[in-house]
Amino acid sequence: DQGSVFKLSFPLTHIPSAPNPQPSKPSEPVKQELNIMVVEDEVNILRFIEKGLTDQGYQVVTACDGHDALAIALERQHGLDMLLTDIALPDMTGIALYHQLKTMSPAIQVLFMSGCIEDAAAQLEDMDRNRHFMEKPFSANELVEKINALVNTTD
């Protein structure tokens, strides 16, 4: 039982190394002072989003459920420009949270997220899902682009 042996010879050539590609950077925030509240009950996802947005210059406050988000919103001296929330929170839906926050900050914009697109479709029936929804998982770059697109348009 003896296998085959192959011997390969290649000529030496000099191939210049390609410059290291720079990682793509997300587009610049529309306005650096944009105040975004992120509400997510999964801590790792919450921290990922918080870091991605703060790295791009956004002002971010976080909450792990709807009641915390409402309490934080009541304490804030400055209004919120955007709510980024999971649709399924432990104590209320992200949609219910949005409607309550909208009474405090009528101009607040919203971006919902969920890993379950069927649940999202059912709950977001009155909203433009293309503009106001992101399916998890997503990259920080995709999130910033979606936020910029949302801020650059009006209802």
Give me the side-by-side strand order of the main sheet: 2-1-3-4-5
Mean pLDDT metric: 80
Low-pLDDT segments, ≥5 res: 14-24
- Helical segment tally? 6
Helix fraction by DSSP (H/I, runs of at least 4): 25-40%
Q: Would you report the number of β strands?
A: 5
- How far do the termini sit from each other? 75 Å
Overall 3D form? globular
Q: What is the chain-wise order of helices and strands?
A: EHEHEHEHHEH
The major beta sheet can be summarized as: 5 strands, parallel
Please state roughly what percent of the residues sit in beta strands, choosing from under 5%, 5-15%, 15-25%, 25-35%, 35-45% or over 45%.
15-25%
Structural class determined from secondary elements: alpha/beta
Specify Rg, calculated over alpha carbons: 22 Å
Structural overview:
With 155 residues, the protein is an alpha/beta fold. Helices cover 37% and strands 15% of the residues. The protein is built from six helices and five strands. It has a five-stranded parallel sheet with strand order 2-1-3-4-5, with helices on both faces. Strand 3, helix 3 and strand 4 form a beta-alpha-beta unit. Helix 1 crosses helix 6. The chain is globular, with a radius of gyration of 22 Å. About 7% of the residues have low confidence.
